[in-house]
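Re-run requested by the PI after the first attempt was lost when the workstation crashed. Everything re-entered from the original request form. Ligand of interest: adenosine-5'-triphosphate.
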Amino acid sequence: MYIVGLTGGIGSGKSTVAKMFRALGVPIYISDEEAKKLMDSSEEIKQQLVKLLGEKALTPKNIPNRPFIAQKVFSDKNLLERLNKIVHPVVEKHFSIWVEKQKTAYVIYESAILFENNAQNKCNYIILVTAPAETRIKRVMERDGVTKAQVEERMKNQWDDKQKQKLADFIIENINLKQTQLQVEKLHGNFLAL
Ligand SMILES: Nc1ncnc2c1ncn2[C@@H]1O[C@H](COP(=O)(O)OP(=O)(O)OP(=O)(O)O)[C@@H](O)[C@H]1O
């Protein structure tokens, strides 16, 4: 079975593309969602969070205190790296178990920060979804009801497309949805024929 990574900057349309693959029967692992769920449920992660950030890292209900954690780690790169080192191995293990249960020719691993997290090694192929920055900003402003500056702030933590294009095997230009659908169908055919 092949593992196909799916990535792209904020507002590029990863989720939109993932839905198109899912409609074709491809299992999708949305890494950010799974990591969030695992942080809530894994006692192993929670214990390590308290070790790293103190008792306040958990709420009285024993779930991660996200605003507290975010405020701590986003101003301290070293802490962010250490947090990633706690969460990643658990997600990796969960992903491997999930992959083994799938019965298709390939699965998709979706992550906004696939390259930034060095997750390309686990993928046989990588698809990068792109769209012009102005388009992406407009989409996210509309989708999330945020300002241009807020979107640009989030973009700062991601690599730019030029860096990612060098490492991607396939690029889906997501501007017109019909064209995107055609690109997805073509790639799906390619992956099935591998
Ligand atoms: N080709 C398109 N034409 C018009 N709107 C689009 C197109 N592709 C995506 N959108 C819309 O743009 C917004 C962002 O798309 P989507 O959520 O798929 O991006 P994403 O890359 O997953 O974003 P994020 O990284 O923020 O999760 C959504 O509201 C989506 O419906």
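Saved to the shared folder this time. The pocket of adenosine-5'-triphosphate is lined by residues 8, 10-16, 112, 139-140, 143, 174-175, 177, 180 (CB under 6 Å).
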